[in-house]
Amino acid sequence: MKILVLNAGSSSQKSCLYEIQDNIPENPPKPIWSAQVEWRPEVAKIKIKTATAELQQDISASHSETIAYLIDSLHQGTTKVINDLSEIDVVGHRVVHGGKEYQSSVVITQAVIDTIQQLATLAPAHNPVNLKGIEAIQEHLGDIKQVAVFDTAFHSHIPDEKAIFSGAYEWVSQGIRRYGFHGISHQYCTQRAAKILGQNLDSLRLINCHLGNGCSLAAVKNGRSIDTTMGFTPLDGLMMGSRSGAIDPGLLIHLLRQENYTPETLDNLLNKSSGLLGISGISGDMRQILGAISQGNERAKLAYDIYIHRLRYYIGAMLASLQGLDVLIFTAGVGENSPDVRFSVCEAFGFLGLLLDNQKNHNHPVDINIAAPESKVKVLVIHTQEDWQIACECFKLH
C-alpha cells in the first residue's frame, strides 16, 4: 500500500510517500519520496528528495498549483518513484483542530470537511490551510480516499477536571475547554518509547516533552493522554520560541485598558513577539540563545532560565497528575538536539532518583535511553515522526 501524507502548517508543508506491505513494521521506514515547501510572499520554496535524487526549486504558484507540482514530481522527472498516480491508495492529512467532534482519525467526507471548516475559528492559522490540502488532492487526484488525523485527538480523553476551565460554566456548552495539541507527536513518541524499552505501554507512566518552536507536555497513563499543557489554543502552557505560554489573564485586561491594545495587537504580541524571542531580543531559536549566552548576553541567559523554570514547573504538574513517573521523553527540534536543555531540566528531578548519563546525553542520542544505569526513571530522546504516525493511521483505516 502506498500512502501519501500532507502535513501542512501555517507557513510550511511537509509531504511524504510511504509504502507499507502487509503489516506496519516495527521500526519506521524512510519515505520513498519526501518534499518540503516553505510558503514565502509570492513564491514557494520547494525541496524534494528520493533515494536517488534531490531537487530544489522556487516556483511562483498558488497553493493548489504547488501541490499539483509536488504530485507530478511523484511520477515524472528525476524524482519519479511511481509509474502512475493510481498507485497511491490513500492520502493522509494532519488536521490541527478536531474539537470535541473527532476523538480519532476519520475517513474524509463532505460532512468532515464542513466540520473542519466550522472548527477553523478555533485554529484560524491551521485548519483553513489543512482544508486547502484536502481540496487540492480532490482536485488533482479525484475521489481517492483521504484520511484526517487530528492533532487534538490524542488528548480527547483528558478528564473533565483537567480539561474544563474554572471560568463560567456556560463555556462548556460553547466548546471552550482544554483541547491540547501536538497530539500526533505525543502519540508517536509514547508508542515508540514502549517499543524501545520492550515494555507494554499500559504499564508505563510517561511525560513527553515536545520542545520545538512550539512546546507542550503530555502526561500519558495506560497509553492515553491524561493531562497536557496547551489549552484551548496552542498558546497556553510552556514558554516557546515566540509564544508567551501561560500568563496572568489580568495582565491582558490591564493591557487592553491601560495601553489601548487591540485583540490583533495582543495576538501578535503573545504569538509572534514573546517567548525566547521576546525576552532575549535576539531570536526564538534555542541555538542562537545558547550562543549568545556563551558570549555573556544577560537577556539571553534570562530567557533560557525562564524557559527551563517553566519546563520544570509543568513537569511537576504532570508528575502530580500521573502520581509518579517511569519515563521522561524529549523530542522535536530542541528536545532532540539540545543536551544543555535536557541536562538543565533533569537536574531538578534528582529527588526522583533520575540520573543522566552525561556521555550519552552529549553524543547526539536518537531513540535511546540516556539515563544512567542506576536511574529510577528512564530518560529517552526520540526522533518524532508525525508523518509516519499519520501513515499508520491511514493504514489502519484503509
UniProtKB/TrEMBL annotation:
Keywords recorded for this protein, A-Z: ATP-binding, Cytoplasm, Kinase, Magnesium, Metal-binding, Nucleotide-binding, Transferase
Binding, substrate: 94
Entry GO CC: cytoplasm
Origin: domain of life: Bacteria
GO biological process: acetate metabolic process; acetyl-CoA biosynthetic process
Pfam families registered for this protein in UniProt: Acetate_kinase
Keyword Thylakoid included in the entry's annotation: no
Active site per database record: 151 (proton donor/acceptor)
Binding residues annotated for ATP, in chain numbering: 14, 210-214, 285-287, 333-337
Transmembrane segments: none
E.C. numbers: 2.7.2.1
Matching SUPFAM superfamilies: Actin-like ATPase domain (SSF53067)
Binding site for Mg(2+): 7, 386
Assembly mode: Homodimer.
Family: Belongs to the acetokinase family.
Protein name: Acetate kinase
Source organism of the structure: Dulcicalothrix desertica PCC 7102
